[in-house]
Amino acid sequence: MKHQVIIKKRNKTNHLFSLVSILCIMLFSCNNFGQELDSKGDVGVFHFEEEVIDYGSIAQNDNGVRTFKFTNRGLAPIVISKVKTTCGCTVPIYPKQAILPGETGTIDIKYATNRVGTFSKSITVISNADNGQKKLRIKGNVIAKPKVSVN
User: What end-to-end distance do the CA atoms of the chain give, in Å?
Assistant: First the structure.
């Protein structure tokens, strides 16, 4: 038994419709892809003066506040949504308003200097900037204050 293949002839309308559909899909795909590439260029970019602050040796119960200074070197505002620390002994204070391109800002970190000994703590800045998360660090050594004797 022989198999017969029946080929349907497309009429010109179907062929034209298919061609126009394919062209439209290609056009819209290229347009959307181009917009994604353009939008990635307009982001905020953190530039910190220093990413590690070394307290050095600090006396027990001294002022544990240090400041990370940064500039937005990008083309869009930076909004810091959260600053996470590795423990409750490190408290961040950061700007809640947007940092516009070219502007500077600060993140203050208060370390609890009532704890004696060396420390090294990480701070994670979460924002809409180019990397999304920026790691900062503080380190130092808290030295116990000498006991005062009363004679």
Answer: 121
Contact status, residue 137 vs residue 108, Cβ threshold 8 Å? no
For residue 22, give the amino acid letter.
Answer: I
Cα angle for residues 93, 47, 90 (degrees, 5° grid): 25
Dist. CA 64–CA 138, nearest whole Å: 11
Alpha helices in 2-150 (DSSP H): 12-41
| pLDDT digits 0-9 by tens, 54-75 | 999 999 999 999 999 999 999 9
Give the C-alpha separation, 20 to 134, whole Å: 48
pLDDT-above-90 percentage for the chain: 66
Rounded alpha-carbon distances, angstroms, from residue 112 to 19, 103, 122: 70, 30, 14
Q: In what order do the strands lie in the sheet with 52-59?
A: 52-59, 133-143, 117-127, 80-85
In the 8-state DSSP scheme, what is residue 121? E
Q: Which residue has the higher pLDDT, 38 or 95?
A: 95
pTM of the model: 0.70
CB-CB contact of 70 with 45 (8 Å): no
User: 43, 76 in Cβ contact below 8 A?
Assistant: yes
